[in-house]
Amino acid sequence: MESYQLKNGTKVFQYGLPIETKAVIAPKRKMKLKCDLDVKFQKDGTTISIELLSEDRIYGLGENLGGINKRGRIYESYCTDTPSHIEDREKLYSAHNFFIVSGKVVRGYFIDFPGRITYDMGYYNQKDINIKIYGQNFYIYILEGEDEKEVSSKFLEIIGKSYVPPKWGFGYFQSRWGYRNKEEVKKVYKTFKENDIPIEGIYLDLDYMDNFKDFTISQERFSGFKEFVEDLKKEGIYLIPIIDAGVKVENGYDIYEEGMKGDYFCKDKEGKPYEGVVWPGKVHFPDFMKKETQSWFGDKYQKLTDCGIEGFWNDMNEPAIFYEQEALEKAVEYAQKKLKNKNLDVFSYFKLKDNFTSLANRDSYYKNFYHEIDGKKVCNEKVHNLYGYFMTKSTYEALRKILKGKRFLLISRSSSIGMHRYGGIWTGDNSSWWFHLEQNMKMLPSLNMCGFFYIGADTGGFGGNCNGELLTRWLQLSIFTPLLRNHSAMGCNNQEPYAFTKKVLKNTRNLIKARYSLIPYIYSEYMKSVNHYHLMFQPLSFEFKDVLAKEIEDQILLGDQVMIAPVCIPNYKGRYVYFPEEMLEISFMHPKKMIGIRKKGIHYINYRLEDFKFFIRKNAMIPYVKSCKNLKKLDQKNLKILAYVDNEAIYNLYDDDGISYDFIKGKRFSTRIKIIKKENNYEIKVHNTNPSIKNIEFKIIDSENHITEKDISFINKNQ
Ligand code: GLC
């Protein structure tokens, strides 16, 4: 075993000869260190056990179901196309192997290994974490710190900064698998416009392709694509097409032929391109572990950027495999030969059925194909969790070249840590279930801990039929998520804001408008978190150390200013909210906005469907502006501040041009606002370098519920 130390004190233990995933980018220095972990090598892998004390809580693991506290459950890291996120689902589309154990001491662990890992986080044996790594070559990173915040910051520091989308990526996006042609897409946009609902863009699902072939456009349904994209852009609408991992096997299809000629695909045992079946039928999977494939596939995005496209979603990149031809044939053969004319009892019937229902994403398929890494043949199973990561890295690197200095929107379904530097993620095929709304909230801090900041779930739910109440409640949460996309599956009821009643339309319209009002704040919090390596969304326990705060599972913090407590239960007209300190109740739809100070403790809060509620912490403030129909129209001239100040509050509003990478070179704007409470008044100090802000309107409340209003204008003043 080799050991190393990173600059921020992180200890690294190397077992065997690991595959370099490049999840961590901080340089490591060799150092003799003692590992206190209980690591045991076995024939088929390695086990690690970590003792759990009764007060220990576990955080992290990114995209996974379960609580904010991950203790008492089983998880698996093996990127999988899992359409049904039921209660005991152990794995989803991504593999995020960082977690923090917090109790008497706080420690973070990152297992840098691209194959399968299972975690029993005190489920069978409450006193232990039992981890199984399906291999013997890996790194373990151990991070220590005063508290969870310090440990998560240290981790963010060593894995490098998150991907940053353009500012328009923070707008509202409508999506649906099943907008079949240009007319339907246009109709969506028009209906948004007619109903005065702000919208930034529409995602194009695979309906736009010719027979599900990547980088093609259906001439029947989307002819004149370039003009179409440009026309919509003139209206302020971006189109975001999907790209799938599998390339259709079809003579005459240029991508397939180039892939064959250039030897860019994954191989089967015999060295022939591996064949799986996905949307278009038989496909080959580009071998994204090969440099040549990365640049070849990446360059293909230009076919669409040449039409004016500036954003993509990479899908089915676990990679998802519906079936292998041979497996399907066996199932059919079994059905035909063995069971013909037989009277099936329950067991034979189940066997017959399971033969078909278990066809998708079988473990055995991932043993059947190989990548080429540095000239060596490596089975997919061993590097399985890197596929979506390397696909998206290829896209990112190509788009950086193609779009020059312009930022682009890029999300992926599958990911592992490291990919966060190249794109965001949506959390896959959830359902229109209340449980998934709650899961959406719980996942936000965990995803941040693993480096992912441009995140969001399919608002309203992907599968199943959404109703107006669920969509409204879901939006009340999604307003805060950097990626805000309403997406649903083919065959489900429509779930655009206007698909329900007039009342739902009114409520959802107001919510989307509220999102646009809050974009300066959400963008600022996003960028500051990314730039300063801290979490945008935090569990309450990261800030407050009392017993209740440690256990709260249905409230989270946004930045240092806001507490979010969404309603995740149908029929509720409000909910109990725990206030770990005095906070200001905001009712954003109310003309007054400030409802009043809530004392520390538990309070029942009225939260109607027509409202939008959140809570501002003591000595904190949030900025907002007038809403707009899309971000091109964002007007920050008149900034408004809602503040709860008892002695002193400071807020630093970050901004930049929102389109270029100049912010990396330090081209940023800041509006630093300081409010100091004096006897019966407030002293306000503003240092503003943002030329688009001309005036700031303050509304400040104190613990006694006294409201003070003030106005500061920068016009003709030296800013
Ligand atoms: C996958 C995606 C989903 C998409 C569908 C069709 O299930 O996760 O978002 O709509 O494929 O492309």
Automatic annotation (TrEMBL):
GO BP terms: carbohydrate metabolic process
CDD domains the UniProt entry points to: GH31_glucosidase_II_MalA, GH31_N
Record-linked InterPro entries: DUF5110 (IPR033403), Gal_mutarotase_sf_dom (IPR011013), GH (IPR017853), Glyco_hydro_31_AS (IPR030458), Glyco_hydro_31_C (IPR048395), Glyco_hydro_31_N_dom (IPR025887), Glyco_hydro_31_TIM (IPR000322)
Keyword flag Hydrolase: yes
Coiled coil location: none
Protein name: Alpha-glucosidase
Residue ranges occupied by any Glycosyl hydrolase family 31 C-terminal domain in the UniProt entry: 536-622
Keywords in alphabetical order: Glycosidase, Hydrolase
Similarity-based family: Belongs to the glycosyl hydrolase 31 family.
Domain spans labelled Glycoside hydrolase family 31 N-terminal: 40-120
Keyword Hydrolase tagged: yes
One annotated GO molecular function: carbohydrate binding
Record domain Glycoside hydrolase family 31 TIM barrel: where: 163-524
Boundaries of every DUF5110 domain copy: 639-696
Pfam families: DUF5110, Gal_mutarotas_2, Glyco_hydro_31_2nd, Glyco_hydro_31_3rd
